[in-house]
Amino acid sequence: MRSPTGNIEPFAREICERDFRRAGIHGSELAADVDRDWHCVAAQIEAGLINDNNELIPHNLEQGLAAYRDWHARHPNYAIPPMRRPGDGCLMSGDNSGKAGNIWCTPPVSATTSS
Hints:
The chain has 4 helices and 2 strands, in the order αααββα. It is globular. The chain has one domain (8-112). Strand 1 and strand 2 (91-92) form a beta hairpin. It has helices spanning 8-22, 27-46, 61-74, 109-112; strands at 83-84, 91-92. The longest helix has 20 residues, at 27-46.
């Protein structure tokens, strides 16, 4: 049976994983973050916000949100996995409506700040 998300999912997961690895996220945290955020990258790819070199094209917030909303409207049955708390690998309940929560493939705060 064909996946409802099409052939873009493996490609989007690959880009998302690469970006999280660059941010220093590994192991189970990496897998959880990719599972939670790959669809954001898929939305960006489909909207033309990621170029052929897999690099994010500069765009404004409205364009990014429109891409996400369009993707979610085409995949209404996709349930966003719960968020994990940064740094401890635990999962937190999240908003699965697609209207709130972490909608960008960005590393958790602990991965972007120095101690």
